[in-house]
Specification:
It holds the Pfam family LtrA. The chain is an all-alpha fold and 395 residues long. The chain has two domains: 166 residues, no CATH class; 177 residues, I/LWEQ domain (Up-down Bundle), CATH 1.20.1410. The protein is built from twelve helices and no strands. The longest helix is centred in the middle third of the chain and has 32 residues.
Length: 395
C-alpha cells in the first residue's frame, strides 16, 4: 500500500523544509553530489597550474575565473535548493544524478577552454546541470504555498539564461568573454529577482555545513599538492631540502586556512536575504582562492625544480595572493561580526602581510608564520557569542 506521504508513483510531495528543523545535516546524496565537483575542481586547478608555470598569467587567470564560476554557481544553486526542498525520492535523486553528469561533462571541457578558449563542452555540461535544476524548481512550485512565485521565477530565470549561454557557441574571440560577463551578471540576478517579494526557506546550520564541506574538498587539493612536493623530492635529490620544506609549510598553511574558516559560527552570517546573498556570492572568491592555492603550490614546485618560466617572486605570488584572498574573504563574511577588536585587526592585517611576503628572501616560510599567528590570536580570542535569529530567503 502506498504510504500516506507518498504518491502512487512513489514520489514524496515536494514541500518547503522547516528552516528550524532540529538536527538537519547534509544527506548522503548531497555528499555524493559533491564528489563529482572534486573532479572539476582538480582539473581546473591543474590547468591553472600549467598556465601560470608557462607564464600565460592573464589568459590562465581569465579562463580559471570563467570555468570556476560554472563550477561554483551550479554547486551553489543546488545547495540552496536542497536546503529548501530536498525530498530524497527517486525523481529527486535522478535529477541530481543528471546534474552530476553535467559536472563531469563540464570537467571534460576545461582543458579546451585553457588551450583554445573553446567553451563548447563546458557550456553543454553547464546547461545540462541547469536544465535539471529547472525541473527541480518546477516540481517545487506545485506545493510551496507563498513561495510558489519565487520557485516559478527561479525556473523561468534559469531557463532564459540557459538560452543565452547557448548563443555563445556561435561566438568567438573577445565577444565570448564579453558575453560571459553579461550572462554571469544575469545568473547572479536570478535569485535577487526571484526572492524580491516571495522567499524560499533555508536552514542556516544546514546551508553553512554544506559550504564548509565544499571548503574541505578544496583544501584537500592543497594537501594533494603538499604530497606532490614530497613525491617530487624523491625524484629530485638536488632539491630535496626545499621540496620537503615546501611540503611541510603547505600543510601548516592549509591547516591554518581550515582553522580560520571554521573558527566563526557561520550560521549567524546569513540572518537576512541580503546577508545570505553576500555570504553566498563572496564564497566564489573564497572557493576560487582555495582552488588557486593548490595550483600555486604546484607552481612553487616547478620553481624549485626549475620547470617554470616565472621568476621566484612571481611564483611566490601564485601562492600568497590566493591565501590573502581566502583569509580576507572569510574575515569579511563570517569573522568580522563575530569577533572582538583584536581579531578584527589581526586577521585582515595578517592577510595583508602575506601579500608582502614574496618581496622577502624567505617568503613562504613567513607566510606560514603569519598564518600561525592569526590562528594563535583566534585561539586566545574566542568568537563573540551572538543569539540566533530567524531565516528568510536563500541565494
Amino acid at each position: 500500500m502506498t504510504s500516506p506521504t507518498m504518491t502512487r508513483s512513489r514520489l514524496i510531495p515536494m514541500r518547503p523544509r522547516d528552516p528550524h528543523e532540529p538536527g538537519r545535516t547534509a544527506s548522503s546524496l548531497e555528499l555524493f553530489f559533491d564528489l563529482v565537483f572534486v573532479v572539476a575542481v582538480s582539473v581546473a586547478a591543474s590547468e591553472l597550474h600549467h598556465a601560470l608555470s608557462d607564464k600565460h598569467i592573464v589568459d590562465g587567470l581569465g579562463s580559471y575565473a570563467m570555468v570556476f564560476f560554472a563550477i561554483w554557481w551550479a554547486w551553489m544553486n543546488f545547495t540552496w535548493f536542497a536546503t529548501s526542498f530536498a525530498t530524497d525520492d527517486w525523481l529527486y535523486r535522478l535529477l541530481t544524478i543528471l546534474q552530476m553528469s553535467g559536472v563531469l561533462v563540464l570537467a571534460a571541457g576545461i582543458e579546451q577552454v585553457f588551450a583554445d578558449r573553446d567553451f563548447t563542452v563546458v557550456v553543454f555540461g553547464y546547461v545540462v546541470m541547469r536544465v535539471a535544476m529547472i525541473a527541480q524548481w518546477l516540481r517545487a512550485s506545485h506545493r510551496t504555498g507563498e513561495s510558489r512565485q519565487a520557485t516559478l521565477r527561479y525556473a523561468a530565470g534559469i531557463a532564459v539564461v540557459q538560452v543565452l549561454w547557448l548563443t555563445t557557441l556561435a561566438m568567438s574571440g573577445t565577444v565570448v568573454v564579453v558575453a560571459w560577463c553579461v550572462f554571469v551578471l544575469a545568473e547572479l540576478l536570478v535569485p535577487v529577482v526571484a526572492e524580491r517579494r516571495w522567499t524560499t526557506p533555508w536552514h542556516p546550520h544546514h546551508i553553512t555545513e554544506r559550504y564548509g564541506l565544499f571548503t574541505l574538498i578544496l583544501l584537500g587539493e592543497s594537501l594533494l599538492a603538499s604530497a606532490n612536493a614530497i613525491i617530487e623530492a624523491v625524484h629530485d635529490h638536488e632539491a630535496l631540502g626545499p621540496l620537503i620544506a615546501l611540503s611541510v609549510l603547505t600543510l601548516v598553511v592549509t591547516a591554518a586556512m581550515w582553522w580560520i574558516y571554521f573558527w566563526p559560527p557561520h550560521h549567524t552570517a546569513i540572518r537576512t536575504f541580503a546577508s545570505s546573498i553576500r555570504y553566498g556570492y563572496v564564497h566564489y572568491f573564497v572557493f576560487a582562492a582555495a582552488g588557486a592555492f593548490s595550483a600555486g603550490i604546484e607552481v612553487e614546485i616547478d620553481s624549485i625544480t626549475h620547470h617554470t618560466e616565472l621568476s621566484e617572486v612571481a611564483a611566490s605570488y601564485t601562492v600568497t595572493i590566493p591565501i590573502a584572498i581566502f583569509v580576507f574573504g572569510i574575515w569579511w563574511i563570517a569573522i568580522k561580526d563575530n569577533a572582538d577588536r583584536t581579531v578584527n585587526i589581526v586577521v585582515p592585517l595578517g592577510a595583508g602581510l602575506v601579500l608582502l611576503d614574496p618581496l622577502i628572501p624567505i617568503p613562504f616560510a613567513l607566510t606560514a608564520v603569519f598564518m600561525a599567528l592569526i590562528v594563535a590570536t583566534l585561539v586566545i580570542h574566542p568568537p563573540v557569542q551572538r543569539s540566533d535569529e530567524g531565516s528568510g530567503g536563500g541565494a
